[in-house]
C-alpha cells in the first residue's frame, strides 16, 4: 500500500470511528435518566450536547478503538471507553475556553459553550461531562471484568487530574505571568501533562481492554507519549501559521497571551523538526510491539497528527 492509499485507509477508519462515537455519545447524552439518576435538567443537557456533539475528529476515541483492535477486541467496550475519554476532552475544552482560563469565544467554528449559554452553565456542563465519563467506564457494559473497569478508571483519573491534564493547565496558566520564561524541559513537562496525558491514556486504554502483555503495553505507552508530544507541537505550529477559518478558533492566541510553547522558544523550523522526530519516535515504538502490519493504522495516525491543518 503506497502512502496515498495508507492515508485514504486511515481517513476512512477515522471517519467510521467518529460516526460510531457520535452515535454512541448521542445515545449516552439522551434525556432519559439512568438508574440512580433523578432528572436530567433540559438546559444543562442542551449545553452538554452542544459542547460534545457535532464536532471534532474524535482522534482520542479512535486511538482507543484502534489500540484495542490490535488485540482482537472491538465493539461496545472500546467504543464506550472512547466516549468516556471524549467526554473528558470536551469538558476540558469547555473549561479552557472560559474567561478565567484561555478566554476564547470560538471553538470548532462556532461560539464557545459559555458564549452560547452562560458561564455558570458552561462550568456545570464541564463538571457533568467529567463525572459522567467515570460513570461510563465503571459500568459493566464497558467490560464484564470489574478489575479491567477499575484499571480504566484509575488510568483516566491519573491522566486527567492533578498530575496530568489539570495540573498541566495550571502550569500553563502560571507560565503566562512567570517572571522568567520556561525552559525547554519545563515546556515539555507542561505539554506532556496538559495535552499528552489524555492521548497516552487512549492507547493505554486499548491495551487494558485488550489484555496486552507488559512489553506490548509499555511500547504502546511510549507510542502514546510521542504521539501526544507531536500533537502539541503541531498544534503550536498551527496556532502560529494557521488561520481562524481553518482552525475553527482564534489563531495567534499563544503569542498574544505569552504561552510557553516550543515554537516560541525554538522557532518554527526547529519546532517542525522536533514534531517530525516525534512522529518517527512514535512509529518506532509501534514496530517494537511485535504486532507487525496490525499497527499500520496507528502509524498513520502519527503522520496525520503532524500534517493536519486544524
From TrEMBL:
Cofactor: Mg(2+)
Keywords: Isoprene biosynthesis, Magnesium, Metal-binding, Transferase
UniProt-listed Gene3D superfamilies: Farnesyl Diphosphate Synthase (1.10.600.10)
One example of a Gene Ontology biological process annotation: terpenoid biosynthetic process
Entry-linked InterPro entries: Isoprenoid_synthase_dom_sf, Polyprenyl_synt, Polyprenyl_synt_CS, Prenyl_diphosphate_synthase
Pfam families: polyprenyl_synt (PF00348)
NCBIfam families: FPPsyn (NF045485)
Transferase found in the keyword field: yes
Protein name: Probable farnesyl diphosphate synthase
Top-level taxon in the UniProt lineage: Bacteria
Keyword Signal found: no
Family per record: Belongs to the FPP/GGPP synthase family.
Gene Ontology molecular function, alphabetical: metal ion binding; prenyltransferase activity
One GO cellular component term noted in the UniProt record for this chain: cytoplasm
